[in-house]
What does this fold into?
Amino acid sequence: MSIAPEKVGRDEPHHGRNIAIIWAIATAIMVPVIIWVVGPHIPPGSLTDDTRAQHAVDVVLTALSIPLLMLVWVYLGYAVINFRADPASGTIVDGPPLRSNTRIQATWLIVSAVLVVGLAAYGTVDLLTENGAGGGQGSNPLAKPSDARSALQVQVIGQQWLWTFRYPGYGGVETAQLVLPVNREIEFHVTSLDVVHSFWAIELGVKADAVPGADNIAYVKIFRKGSFQVRCDELCGLWHGHMNTTGHIVSGSAFNSWIHATVTKYAAVTKYLPPYSLTYYPIPTRNAT
Amino acid sequence: MRVRLLAVAATFAALIALVAVYVVYFLESGPPAVAAVINRDGSASLTLQVVGSYGNHPFPDWVSYLVKDPSGKWRHTTIWKLPAHELVHVTVYQFDSQTGLRNNFLAQVRGTVGGVATYTDVGNTGKGSGLPPYNNTSLSVIPPSEPAHTFTVPDLDLSVPLVGISDSTSNVCAVAPCPMHFAHTTISFSFRTPGAGTYRWQCFVPCAFAFLYGFGGPMQTIGYMDGLLEVA
It folds into this structure.
């Protein structure tokens, strides 16, 4: 098999135009499909204000990726069909040499820059307008919900390998169960007693690192009753994979009943708890050595 | 060309075999499972001891649990077989000294029958708090400075703090299994097993001396202060 010298047929179809037309049609079909058909099934759902915000971002980003995906696939398919070597000829025909194209390069750079800066701005605005979108904001949140003052405060305490929860509005009672009321702003204060963990309430769309000596605040408002899974999302030792629990979302009245029963149930041990504090490090570690 | 291909294939096969051997070894190298004693009424009895230093190969200075098998012999394993949906009567002979809890919430007895455990000091010279020794005392909460260890099964919401012996006690066991004439605390409680499954348990007291935050070594090793309940 030999490589023939440059041989460009003048009767070649206008491949660039053909690819652009096919790409435009595929994109015009697939973007609405992604937004309205696939979109509703993209995680993490609509249980909370955070998951709704995250879901909107997921749909937007997925839809924005479609034109590029279509470009790659269309070009690949077009090339496979149209640029195959003719097996009968026994030769490989090389294409014309590529020279720099200022217009294409400029377009590529400008589109890339606009995409990156635009998405960064979109993400920043979204974080600020969506109360942090479920992420931990540190001890001094920039994005607070309007009803933050009336929020139910729940402290999330990570330790190897257990989550416990304190309710400072109810005498600082601590429990291994996470029960939350529906339709009320929740203010999580996430911390750790030993190593770094990460509090991930999956269906709530909340994820905040639990760092010893740090108070990491995250907000969420839940719209429906049900249950959700809590995982640790930071590799933290032997039982990291088992550091999970199931949280429950109940009505306001059911929450009041539960929290008062819990306060009574744990009254004796509550006396032994340290006064409620945003962090407990390094005092707990003094026992260790 | 064929020789080269064969060499590559043979090398690849050897690597796969090595990985397979390692995986099988890893899966089979854990401590054995020991069954609890099954009583006539279908309930089970589980007898444990906790020692401050195992005293044997390979980690003689590591804190550890041991279990008594149905023949009455102490075995060094933390994987225990229990019947499903049955009452389990647990007796723990706790020979280690007090460390105290990192999280005082774990001073609460949870998930046992009646929400209590029964504590008895044996050969203990008294508590650092100055309180008299326990004598078959049922408690739902103990002072957070007293535990040497906990027996906690998070998935069952079961947790029992295990009171340690006083630091001033001289009659301390250093090599497992510990005979009963050494100072210890006897803790007994009962709980009901759930359906079949494997449930992890662990100690929550940072009791691994000389490890970072007291939570390395034996605290991260099945066979010492972590284990599994194989409920079937």
The CA atoms of residues 98 and 148 of chain B lie 4 Å apart.
